[in-house]
Amino acid sequence: MAIHFDKALGLHADALKLRGDRTKLLASNLANETTPGYQARDIDFASSLAGALDAAAGGLSLETGGTETLYRVPNHPAQDGNTVELGVEQAAFSQNVSDFQTSLAFINMKLRGLKQAIEG
């Protein structure tokens, strides 16, 4: 009897991949805070995860552009055209890290459960 980890872990594996890519985008926003004309980007996590779970989509394909990158609309636009707002980006990054840790904890619990079931 084979164990299919993609089925055993459910949506948490896809969520972890998506959170990792979102972390890269948010880190890029923070790094380019002072770059004139830089447009802050983000991912709509809920719709991207829903697309990953859709059987017709064939799973999450981040490498082929499966997730749509959106541009963030600033609350207070800068004169140099940069749309990165430090407080907004730091809050989004912090929340994403917390959500990443939560997804990782769920995967860890699932794997511990599988290990316990195998060992008996």
Mean pLDDT: 84
Radius of gyration: 18 Å
Total number of domains? 1
From the N-terminal CA to the C-terminal CA, the straight-line distance is: 15 Å
Q: How does the major sheet shape up?
A: 2 strands, antiparallel
Globally, the shape reads: elongated
Task: Give the number of DSSP strands.
Answer: 2
- In N-to-C order, the SSE pattern is HHEHEH
> How much helicity do the residues have?
55-70%
Number of helices: 4
Share of β-strand residues: 5-15%
* Biggest sheet, spatial arrangement of strands: 1-2
Structural class: mainly alpha
Low-pLDDT segments, ≥5 res: 59-65
Describe the structure.
The chain is mainly alpha-helical. It has one domain. The chain is 57% helix and 5% strand. A two-stranded antiparallel ribbon has the order 1-2. It is elongated and about 65 Å long. It starts with a helix and ends with a helix. The relative contact order is 0.19. The model is unreliable at 59-65 (pLDDT under 50).
